[in-house]
Amino acid sequence: MMAEDIIIAPVVTEKSNDGINEGKYTFKVNKKATKPEIAMAVEKLFNVKVLKVNTINVSGKTRRVGRNYGKTSDWKKAIVTIDTNPSDKTYLAEGGKVKKVAMKYKDSIEEFMGA
């Protein structure tokens, strides 16, 4: 699955807006997408480092139009926690020297709600 096929739309509610300060973003995702696929899609589309992904299967509600009853479709919601303080990564190179690599990740998703 392509990254554009996994992430369908952002979920904009009061509760999801409260999570933005903590680095938690909520998306409507494909029902067949797994947590690793969702994490890779968010990292690819928004250039952020994903720390954790929580998913919820949301069941559709029963609706009534006149005397007819119907049901809205089921969908999947993903709450993605990103790294709000990306730091440089250090490792040992040849000869025991410490090498530092600057990570090129953003600390927020600007495209989310135009923030």
How many strand segments?
8
CATH architecture: 2-Layer Sandwich
Helix proportion: 10-25%
- Compute the number of structural domains: 1
Oligomerization state of this entry?
single chain
Arithmetic mean pLDDT: 88
**Sheet with most strands:** 4 strands, antiparallel
> Could you give the distance between the termini?
28 Å
CATH topology: Alpha-Beta Plaits
CATH superfamily: RRM (RNA recognition motif) domain
CATH class call: Alpha Beta
| Weakly predicted, low-confidence segments | none
Show the helix and strand layout:
Elements: H1 3-6, E1 7-10, H2 14-19, E2 24-29, H3 35-46, E3 50-58, E4 62-65, E5 68-71, E6 75-82, E7 89-92, E8 98-101
Antiparallel strand pairs: 1-2, 2-6, 3-6, 4-5, 7-8
Please name the defining characteristics of this protein.
115 residues; two-stranded antiparallel ribbon; 8 strands; elongated; alpha+beta; 3 helices
Outline the structure in words.
The protein has helices at residues 3-6, 14-19, 35-46; strands at 7-10, 24-29, 50-58, 62-65, 68-71, 75-82, 89-92, 98-101. The chain is of the alpha+beta class. It has a single domain (3-103), classed as Alpha-Beta Plaits, CATH 3.30.70. The strands form three sheets. It has a four-stranded antiparallel beta sheet. It has a two-stranded antiparallel ribbon with strand order 4-5. The longest helix has 12 residues, at 35-46. It is elongated, with a radius of gyration of 19 Å.
